[in-house]
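S1.2 Input.
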Amino acid sequence: MNAPIVHGGGITAAAAIHGGETEHWLDLSTGINPCPVPLPAIPMRAWHRLPDRHLIDQARAAAQNYYRSSILPLPVPGTQSVIQLLPRLFKAGRRVAILTPTYGEYERAFERAGCVVDRVADLDDVKSDHTIVVIVNPNNPDGRSHTPDRLAAFCESVQTRGGFVVVDEAFGDTCPKMSLIPFAPQLPNVLISRSFGKFFGLAGLRLGFVIAAQPILERIEDLLGPWAVSGPALSAAAALLRSDTDEIQRAIEERARALRKVLEENGLRIVGGTDLFALVDHERSADLHWHLCKHHILVRQFDYQPRWLRFGLAANTAGDQRLSDALQSFAP
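S1.3 Output.
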């Protein structure tokens, strides 16, 4: 699994095969809010100077309030950066359990570090020799989730044997009641990560936050080095995390309903998802993917489950109609 993983968002590669200008493609291959929020005014000094401590402190305080955390979250340059560090945060050579199917970069990072990685289907399948456990909650791509009460009890059981639990809440903004963050102060063996760009539609900022016990946060800071997060990203986060996000949530929910309606009206079977994407099972998924590409619409395929396609949200009704028209022209 050391080969690079093909993720969503590869419009350039798709256009090279199927033609068309990239800006004219409809990209439904990612789980990102398709309606990015307007950027707040960013002071010129944030662009001009290295990110000073007050910018970091402001972003951390805003994130603490937004995530309802009693721990100050640590800003990081995208949660992917933390995934790359995980084998160095914890002892190399440990046995890792990853609840799968899920985001493939976890398995790749640990295997490249020489760790033994076991794919497990559920929390009950984690064994006593699994001293690192990775859980994406809600999960990508099927949306499976675990209640915070159950997760907290599970993390405590792993702690008794000196193990650690990584909980990825990248898609957690739309379901805050499912977050483990309120339990974090009582779980010193847990690292919780949150994505900033998915909910706000600003993935290009490359920003995320980590909530964990202070020794873990200090270790991450040390591994990332100074000025890991840009001043403009910190400034934007401080402003947007303090803003009223109810309208963003309502817009995402409306877009999610519209996507499900299009898929169901065209006879596609939805087998999972979150407010930011829907997972479809189709016996001719490869043909359907190719057909959509011919219409310059990109959705997400999965090498480990060839029947699955993941559909992200269109930005508006015109995108919904474009997808519907393409699906209607697909020969059964």
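S1.4 Remarks. The CA atoms of residues 54 and 60 lie 10 Å apart.
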